[in-house]
Amino acid sequence: MIQLRCIKCNKKYPPEKRIYTCQCSGVLEVEIDLGEVSIDKDRLRRRKFGVWRYRELLPINKESKIITLGEGGTPLYKAETLGRKIGVKNLYIKNEGANPTGSFKDRGMTIGVTKALEFGATIVGCASTGNTSASLAAYAAKAQIKCLVLLPSGKIALGKLAQAILHGAKVIGIKGNFDTALKLVREASEELNIYLLNSINPWRLEGQKTEAFEIADQLDFQPPDRVVLPVGNCGNISAIWKGFKELKIVGLIDSLPIMTGIQAKGASPVVKAFKQGREDITPVEKPETIASAIRIGAPVNALKALRALKESGGIAESVSDDEILNAQKMIACLEGIGVEPASASSIAGLIKLLEAGEIDRDERIVCITTGHALKDPEIIFKEYERPIEIEPRLDKLKEVIKW
Ligand SMILES: *Cc1c(COP(=O)(O)O)cnc(C)c1O
Ligand SMILES: [Zn+2]
Asked: Which of 97, 153, 232, 241 can pair with 308 through a Cys bridge, CB separation 3.0 to 4.6 Å?
């Protein structure tokens, strides 16, 4: 049995109801009766690696037309060189940039757009700092339905904007930040019959929880001690925590990792609330950071995230833009993994917490890198020297190569 439950007042709703939030305005969570689920490692292992490998734990009707681009199944790298450099023996990187559109959002959209079709929707929409729109545009194209995207104008990383345009979404810039755009698309979804696929949509997070399933699966169901990830609208940290809890309930793992959420200094309402021991956040009016994917002042899933941190005995920390850029370079040059700035904040946060003695160097740690480097090429040209140009002659070439 599946139902929706408000995380604030516990009111329950049937899954057929096309709603995003409770009457009390609390966000909803999908509850699957795990007592009915039978799943075992051998059966899983015979299936293709990816989101749909875990279909018993996903809330989709058997008869549904599943919209998929082969999302999930991303690599988990043992980061030997980076680990040595920062003094962690067992450091892993789960690289979500390897998804079809280059971010973990695809895991949510395969469920979200499949759900949209179940509801009979012909238009889907979102507000986005970039990756949600890139992903939704692609999945809407696959499903052959219309897609509306509202973006904070002038604030979108070039690669993400290019993707939304390429996949044929109606892309509109909003004078304002992400939070303003989200407010408008929520209004629009009611008036214009648009199915909303921001992370306020509880179904989307059901896809994202497969990050937890895959991490456990790739570590032979010996979950890590800790998972470190960037936090923006708070959907992903909530989804991953839910995923680990469900794996434990169905008996596939015995322990749960400590969740560690990293925000950028200029957009860190969750870190502030966490450190002050508050249950909910105070929104940041003008969020600022180069890490555009986490430039969010009023995260909709903050309550879920704060609970995930608390339940797991976790930590929340913020990092500066310089720390983020430094970490981006380290992952790129020590591990060969190119990530966008938001993603690098997980490594930046880990370094900071190790130095502060808040994380034990003997832990088995998984950092999630959420999006691909090509999402934001401009930041690279801004931070790094462009190649010099020479005449096509060997002597000139020898002159300029100084290893
Ligand atoms: C969406 C996104 C995030 C933030 O995830 P939330 O679920 O909003 O907390 C972080 N990094 C990248 C690359 C993203 O696309
Ligand atoms: Zn409620």
From this structure: 241
